[in-house]
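tool_call: predict_structure(chain=1)
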Amino acid sequence: MTRNLALPRVVVADDVMLTREGIVRLLGEAGVEVVGQSRDATELMKQVRSLRPDVAIVDIRMPPTHTDEGLIAARQIRSEYPKVGVLVLSQYVEPAYAMELIKAYPERIGYLLKDRVFDVATVVDALRRIMEGETVIDPTIVSKLVGRRRREDPLADLTQREREVLGLVAEGMSNGAIARHLLLTERTVEAHVTQIFQKLGLFESPDQHRRVLAVLTFLRS
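tool_result:
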């Protein structure tokens, strides 16, 4: 299959061979070029250094302890290779891990539940958005974060619809995708996003990615 130039080059790290090969096959069928596979964090880092992929897809639990080796590797990749994005996959809903990673490195980061890999369109869209510098969070984790309450809520001035739109931005949706999801026009969504930026004090700047900063504010709320 001819590779779609709009899609990233990726490496896939998962210690379970069948899972890893399944992810690789699904991505390959979708036109994504998988340039490397690894079974642990050590192999992953070697491949990132030598192959310089656009995005590394990393299982959060890898050998030897199967706790947070993937998370540690994700931080190392974002620190040492800022142009390489990371998509972390987790079998469990772990909002604290997602928040910790994204607060430290808010751009070119994604956090999805492992079940999402079977929806290859969702994964490919996440990869594209990560490569463009955005943040992508699994909808299940977004739902949990929406349910939290804080005494000082930086989102207090947002309307219910604006909160809903911001939650979908946090999932990595484009304005067009949000419009289709909420049955609104894209222009209406653009207006909501503009209002969100204004209420959160996020003004246009060549040095800032306002959608990423809005998601970061959402995570901290």
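agent: The CA atoms of residues 103 and 116 lie 22 Å apart. Proceeding to next step.
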